[in-house]
Amino acid sequence: MCILIGAAVLIAPYFLTSPHWHEMIGGARVVGWFALVLGIALVVVDLVQRARSKAR
């Protein structure tokens, strides 16, 4: 979910036509990158844990 939210926040300004929405979402770029990186990190942690449990 975090990956989708982060990607949506980063991509949305390119598709919005309203200047107000474009400015508001464009200001949330840091939040979008944080959500994207957090989502990727959570997926990596889950994959590592699954690999460890299969190795045992």
What composes the largest sheet? none
Instruction: State the oligomer.
Output: single chain
Total number of domains: 1
Report the strand count: 0
Describe what you observe in this structure:
This protein is an all-alpha fold and 56 residues long. The protein has one domain. Helix content is 80%, strand content 0%. The protein is built from 3 helices and no strands. Helix 1 runs antiparallel to helix 3.
List keywords for this structure.
56 residues, rod-shaped, mainly alpha
How is this fold's topology laid out?
Blueprint: H1 2-11, H2 19-26, H3 29-55
Helix pairs in contact: 1-3
Task: Describe what is shown at a glance.
It is built from 3 helices and no strands.
